[in-house]
Automatic annotation (TrEMBL):
UniProt record similarity statement: Belongs to the glycosyl hydrolase 35 family.
High-level lineage: Bacteria, Bacillati, Actinomycetota, Actinomycetes, Glycomycetales
Residue ranges constituting the Beta-galactosidase 1-like first all-beta domain according to the UniProt record: 370-472
UniProt-listed InterPro entries: B-gal_1-like (IPR026283), BetaGal1-like_ABD1 (IPR048912), BetaGal_gal-bd (IPR048913), Galactose-bd-like_sf (IPR008979), GH (IPR017853), Gly_Hdrlase_35_cat (IPR031330), Glyco_hydro_35_CS (IPR019801), Glycoside_Hdrlase_35 (IPR001944)
The keyword Cell membrane is assigned to this record: no
Keyword hit for GTP-binding: no
Name the record gives this protein: Beta-galactosidase
Residues at the active site: E158, E234
Molecular function per GO: beta-galactosidase activity
PANTHER family the record matches: BETA-GALACTOSIDASE RELATED
Origin superkingdom: Bacteria
Gene Ontology terms describing biological process: carbohydrate metabolic process
Pfam families the record matches: BetaGal_ABD_1, BetaGal_gal-bd, Glyco_hydro_35
Organism expressing this protein natively: Glycomyces terrestris
Length: 581
């Protein structure tokens, strides 16, 4: 069998120098019926390797409940890489960042506040041991020395930016090796001396993450690792978007020129991203560097392949550069046709808060947090029946957004992003409901692993409000509550489900126009496309063709804030927002 190794200056494949020309494709962000297409387009651009993270939180949504179905079938993805004649890099973390909810760490792990985060704490390490055993059971038989495609695996992820626990990294290394991993193990950090020093350990090969000034970045890496192959295992060719910001892009010619410098140094590379894909469902994370900023549903990343898998100008610019260092296939991808368009009326269905009454309730004195009620909930609905004069409602801290509903009418919204904690409310004649929305867990930095909910209690004019009934709603509960369509109108009120039926002649990809919607979640034929929000930047949701069927299809929306138009509309191309304000 072939062997992949670390040489003094190069990666070695059976003793011969081998440059890794890789591109990132996250299998969990791409419909599995599209995997082969995306991998093939990577090869046609001139790449020889595909890299992916492994999301622990998606594979194990609840303790001991491991899944490898559908978008999470890592084995099938790696076999698709091999079938295209390419190699693979697998990065299972356990922490991956990736702008994914909680950085890929399962929320249930931190229900106990004493559990360590990315350090050698026994409970944390015990959970990691089980996780890596399962991942390695998939990957080990698919390593190159056993006839498979996997040539490298990464331990942790940009650890030098977070911690300084060499023993923790060594323990993880032992776990990989103890589970049959024989290929070289790597780390990645930004090429800052202090990060590189803290982010690796003996037996691990350092690589760097950056998106510009390749020459200088590689010099820093070489200073801290005098021998072995140079590699940028995250060459940032674009960037992600957050709700309320502009759509981030980089110039194709400038990114290609810097890639040329990197390859001219003899370095290996992994393009982050080659194809970004989509944060389907409610999987996107958030950043918090003083202001909480949830990540958009689109993970287009301004990558060489766009969110729908179509080559961009950057694809062709990168292909030209790669052709200077490797033989290019004669075949090129076919041009993409405009997506089918059309529209259908949206009809009101169940009122969200009323439908939620069908779920089991938790009775508590104080409002419970998500960890106390249900760690994987999308929403917590707190309800209290009482009477009160008009006053000021205050909460300790909002994580992340709260609809305040008095006697069935929404009277305001409190937002974590805006640091809001107080709202004047009218007299309460019967009930106060607080719908708390989890907009995505922080995926990077010191707030990793934090709880969600109303932290610090609820007060009215300074008096504690106690005696609450709470219902937790997971993503899987929402669609079941939608009910049948029974109303029409020119607009949609807030906190309501809506349905629409539309015809499709074929299973071509589509783009759902969200410009005339408010804030909510969309499904087509039971497949959760993700969140939408009028604040942008993105104005469309990507609809993978495989979720459609010839003939009648059904869309369901959960509209939270209210929409000015009750129309489901498909447009010919994606709209990811303005490039600057």
């Amino acid at each position: 069998m072939s062997r992949f190794a670390i040489g003094e200056h190069d990666f070695l494949l059976d003793g011969e120098p081998r440059r890794v020309l890789s591109g990132a494709i996250h299998y969990f962000r791409v419909h599995p019926d599209h995997w082969t297409d995306r991998i093939r387009k990577a090869r046609l651009m001139g790449l020889n390797t595909v890299e992916t993270y492994v999301p622990w939180n998606l594979h194990e949504p609840r303790p001991g409940e491991w899944t490898e179905a559908g978008r999470l079938d890592l084995r099938r993805f790696l076999e698709a890489v091999a079938a295209e004649g390419m190699h693979a890099i697998v990065r299972p973390g356990p922490y991956i960042c990736a702008e994914l909810d909680n950085g890929g760490l399962p929320a249930w792990l931190f229900a106990d506040p004493e559990v360590g985060v990315r350090r050698g704490e026994p409970t944390f390490l015990a959970a990691i041991a089980t996780y890596l055993e399962r991942v390695c059971a998939v990957v080990a038989p698919l390593q190159i020395d056993r006839g498979g495609p996997v040539v490298l695996m990464q331990v942790e992820n940009e650890y030098g930016a977070y911690g300084d626990d060499t023993a923790y990294l060594e323990t993880l290394t032992d776990m990989f090796r103890g589970n049959g991993i024989t290929v070289p193990l790597t780390t990645v950090d930004q090429p800052e001396p202090w990060m590189l020093k803290r982010g690796s350990a003996p037996g691990l090969h350092m690589t760097a993450s950056f998106g510009s000034r390749s020459d200088a970045r590689l010099d820093v890496l070489r200073e801290h690792q005098p021998t072995g192959p140079l590699m940028s295992s995250e060459y940032w060719d674009g960037w992600f978007d957050s709700w309320g910001t502009h759509h981030h892009t980089t110039k194709a010619d400038e990114a290609a020129a810097d890639l040329d410098v990197l390859l001219g140094r003899g370095a290996s590379v992994n393009l982050y991203m080659f194809h970004g894909g989509t944060n389907f469902g409610l999987t996107s994370g958030a950043n918090d560097k003083g202001t909480y900023m949830p990540i958009t549903t689109s993970y287009d990343y301004d990558a060489p392949l766009d969110e729908a898998g179509r080559p961009t100008a950057k694809y062709w610019a990168f292909r030209e550069v790669l052709g200077r260092y490797a033989e290019l296939p004669a075949e090129v991808p076919d041009p993409a046709a405009p997506a089918p368009t059309g529209e259908a009326p949206l009809r009101r269905a169940a009122a969200f808060l009323d439908a939620a009454q069908a779920l089991d309730a938790l009775e508590t004195a104080e409002v419970p947090s998500f960890a106390q009620a249900r760690h994987d909930a999308a929403f917590l609905l707190h309800e209290k029946h009482f009477t009160a004069e008009a006053g000021v409602l205050t909460v300790g801290e909002v994580r992340d957004r709260v609809h305040v509903v008095v006697d069935g009418t929404t009277v305001g919204v409190l937002s974590r992003e805006l640091h809001q904690r107080a709202l004047a409310i009218p007299p309460v004649a019967s009930s106060l409901r607080l719908l708390v929305e989890n907009q995505g867990r922080v995926n990077y930095g010191p707030r990793l692993g934090e709880d969600k909910g109303l932290v610090g209690g609820v007060r009215l004019d300074g008096r504690d409000l106690t005696g609450w009934t709470t219902r937790a709603l997971g993503e899987g509960d929402l669609l079941a509550l939608a009910g049948e369509a029974d109303g029409t109108g020119p607009a949609l009120p807030g906190l309501v489900f809506a349905r629409a039926e539309f015809e499709a002649e074929d299973a071509a990809d589509r783009f759902l126009d969200t410009a005339a919607l408010g804030k909510g979640i969309a499904w087509i034929n039971g497949f959760c496309l993700g969140r939408y929000w009028s604040r942008g930047p993105q104005r469309t949701l990507y609809v993978p063709g495989p979720v459609l069927r010839a003939g009648r299809n059904e869309a369901v929306l959960l509209e939270l804030d209210g929409a000015p138009e009750a129309v489901l509309r498909f447009v010919a191309a994606p709209e990811l927002g303005p490039l600057e304000f």
